Amino acid sequence: xxxxxxxxxxxxxxxxxxxxxxxxxxGEIVALVGRNGVGKTTTMMTIMGLVKPASGSIVFxxxxxxxxxxxxxxxxxxxxxxxxxxxxxxxxxxxNLLMGIKPGHMKKEVVDGWTLERAYDNFPRLAERRxxxxxxxxxxxxxxxxxxxxxxxxxxxxxxxxxxxxxAPIIVERVNEVIHQINRTGTTVLLVEQKLNVCLGLAQRxxxxxxGDIKWTGTPAExxxxxxxxxxxxxx
Length: 236
What we know:
Layout: E1 2-11, E2 14-24, E3 29-33, H1 40-47, E4 55-60, E5 63-64, H2 70-76, E6 78-81, H3 93-99, H4 116-122, H5 124-128, H6 139-151, E7 157-161, H7 169-184, E8 188-192, H8 196-202, E9 205-210, E10 213-218, H9 220-224, H10 227-233
Parallel strand pairs: 3-8, 3-9, 6-7, 7-8
Antiparallel strand pairs: 1-2, 1-4, 4-5, 9-10
């Protein structure tokens, strides 16, 4: 579904991503893991067109998207949940969800996709809060709202950046359930997450990044058996 081949990204003259190559197959949850500042978020932003790659290929559903605008990439079927959450604090939960519907799709009948009714059925907490402004929600509720608002655009693949950052352990469990739930309903997930235990419980495959370079890839079971990889690239 998504394939990066030798992608290089710069911030000004600073080389941040070095020949990044990875694949995400339809129906998977794939995680990018690594210490802070190794290029995980930059990889997501490069895929989404928020940062343009200097070289390399990014193919999504058979089409080259490297160099396209974020709007074009979103319309192709990619959704992005940023670490900052970026909700509209002065809009209600309901209004925030409406903002996630793609232009021209407001009145279209959605078959096997995400609608307001489906969102509220699957996430009753948001239904309870539908008339409250986004700015008064808890951190966990804001994260849930951000993820579900992105789903309202019915992406084929959703990029989720650090969904549990700053959340209490009990809320982390709920966010994990949300990610599992959206994957079970047919949405492929590429996840960036600092907490290794979260990734091991969610992902089918993982890529380990260090200094803008992919050092290892494998399954959670394989990573658990590789103490050398964890010690060199993941442990603080």
